[in-house]
Design brief:
This protein is mostly helical and 154 residues long. The protein has helices spanning 9-14, 31-36, 45-58, 67-84, 89-114, 123-136, 142-146; strands spanning 19-24, 38-43. The protein is built from 7 helices and 2 strands; from the N terminus they run H-E-H-E-H-H-H-H-H. Strand 1, helix 2 (31-36) and strand 2 (38-43) form a beta-alpha-beta unit. Helix 4 (67-84) packs antiparallel against helix 5 and helix 5 packs across helix 6 (123-136). The chain is globular, with a radius of gyration of 16 Å.
C-alpha cells in the first residue's frame, strides 16, 4: 500500500494479522508491526552491500579500502545462493547452514572487531552500524530480532 509518509502506523495497519517472513531494509517503521504480529523480520544483504559499496566506490577506495573485505564476504554469500538454485527447501537449508552460516559469523565478527575504529557518522561507521542492525534480524533468538540499533534516519 502506498503511504505519503513514513510513519510506523502505515506498516502496522497493512501488516495487521500477517504471519510469516518480512524482508525489509532498516526502516524502523516495521518494528511495531513485527512486535504485534507473528512476523519474522529478515534483512536484505543487497542493502547492506550497498552501504559498503558506497564506501568503496563512491567515497573512493583510498578512503575505506577495508570495505572490500565485507564486499568479498557478501559476494561469497551470493555464491552460496547461486549453488542453491534448483535445490529443495531442505537442501537449501542444509547448504546455508553449512556454507552461509560460517560466512555470516565471519562478517559479524569483523563488524564487531572494527565497529569502534570508525566515527559513527563516517561512511564506514554508518555501514557497519547498519550491517550490525541487519544481522539482528537474522539472529536465531526472537528477542534479538526485536532489538534495534538502527537510527531512525537509516
Amino acid at each position: 500500500d502506498y503511504s505519503p509518509n513514513r510513519k510506523g502506523e502505515n506498516p502496522r495497519r497493512y501488516l495487521e494479522g500477517y504471519e510469516g517472513y518480512l524482508q525489509t531494509d532498516g526502516y524502523d517503521g516495521y518494528n511495531i508491526a513485527v512486535k504485534e504480529n507473528k512476523i519474522v523480520r529478515l534483512a536484505c544483504w543487497a542493502h547492506v552491500r550497498r552501504k559498503f559499496f558506497d564506501c568503496f566506490k563512491v567515497l573512493k577506495e583510498r578512503n575505506y579500502p577495508e570495505s572490500k573485505i565485507i564486499l568479498d564476504m557478501i559476494q561469497s554469500l551470493y555464491g552460496v545462493e547461486k549453488k542453491a538454485r534448483g535445490l529443495s527447501e531442505k537442501e537449501i537449508f542444509e547448504l546455508r547452514q553449512k556454507e552461509s552460516k560460517p560466512i555470516t559469523e565471519k562478517i559479524k565478527s569483523w563488524l564487531q572487531e572494527n565497529e569502534d575504529k570508525y566515527p559513527p557518522k563516517s561512511g564506514m561507521g554508518q555501514a557497519i552500524n547498519y550491517a550490525l542492525c541487519c544481522l539482528l534480524y537474522t539472529s536465531p533468538s526472537p528477542r534479538d530480532r526485536t532489538r534495534s540499533r538502527m537510527p531512525s534516519s537509516a
